[in-house]
């Protein structure tokens, strides 16, 4: 929830308070009020300089034990404010990228400003992507994928290299677990000394079929297992301006309509130029995504920051019109 307007510890100057107008920081600052005289939240900004409060009475000034308590309370408040400000300034997500920062919230920051309604919760931010919201960015491999209609960024997917899935789920035909009609995976080939895209794609296609339609990560058989397969397409392909190779199989399963899997390998444009493996998994049948979507996604793969260098089956290598 976005904090209501009020005075909060200034993240850039923890010894001061700064006015938060409910949307953004203003230029109004002041010295903190003495502890024990009520919360500062909800007061209007005071233009011009604000007098600095006098020192907190301490032992021996006629206040006795109360003076000690006030002094300790003031020290605790400064410590808490410093911790909160440190979290606000230095917070990072698990992947090391900065979080969306919000103003620090104290124990009294939930009180609405006088004469105003309590603030409504702010909407959940959409997951960041490339400049175009219809793109999915693979930062590790330095490429972007187009996000076709009916496809979404992965949610509640165990594999961390899935770039996108079809929207929604359904009950798998065999063991009752949850399946998706399509997904696209992007990973770097690191455990193989082979560098030929053709050889790597031909080596991977059987594993791709088994991972998609035979056994899942915990050993279940959501489609009752793979009964047969046949190669329906293969050949050179230009991907993000690089020469690659793809192999596509039609997979028949014990239950359900089966599907199509494709292994596509091409050199990376970043780092050591390790080969990139992209897997496509499309269910067959009327509920599966159109098979032409594999070629459409391939054609739309681009190096990050380069909107002109494309490719596709039958394309030459280099910039496209």
What this model shows, in words?
The chain has 321 residues and is α+β, with helices and mostly antiparallel strands. The protein is 16% helix and 29% strand. The chain has helices at residues 65-90, 197-213, 292-300; strands spanning 6-10, 13-20, 25-30, 135-138, 143-146, 151-152, 162-166, 170-171, 178-179, 182-188, 226-239, 242-253, 259-267, 275-283, 302-303, 312-313. The chain is elongated, with a radius of gyration of 29 Å. Mean pLDDT is 73; it is low at 36-130.
Which helices and strands appear, and what pairs or packs with what?
Blueprint: E1 6-10, E2 13-20, E3 25-30, H1 65-90, E4 135-138, E5 143-146, E6 151-152, E7 162-166, E8 170-171, E9 178-179, E10 182-188, H2 197-213, E11 226-239, E12 242-253, E13 259-267, E14 275-283, H3 292-300, E15 302-303, E16 312-313
Antiparallel strand pairs: 1-2, 2-3, 4-5, 5-15, 6-7, 7-10, 8-9, 10-14, 11-12, 11-16, 12-13, 13-14
- Report the mean per-residue pLDDT as an integer: 73
* Shape designation: elongated
Q: Please mark out the parts with pLDDT under 50 across 5 or more consecutive residues, or reply none.
A: 36-130
The end-to-end span amounts to 47 Å
Structural class: alpha+beta
Strand content: 25-35%
H and E order: EEEHEEEEEEEHEEEEHEE
Count up the helices: 3
Strand order in space, largest sheet: 6-7-10-14-13-12-11-16
- Determine Rg (CA atoms, Å): 29 Å
Helix content: 10-25%
Number of strands: 16
Largest sheet, strands/sense/barrel: 8 strands, antiparallel
What's the short version?
The chain has three helices and 16 strands. A hairpin with a 7-residue loop joins strand 13 and strand 14.
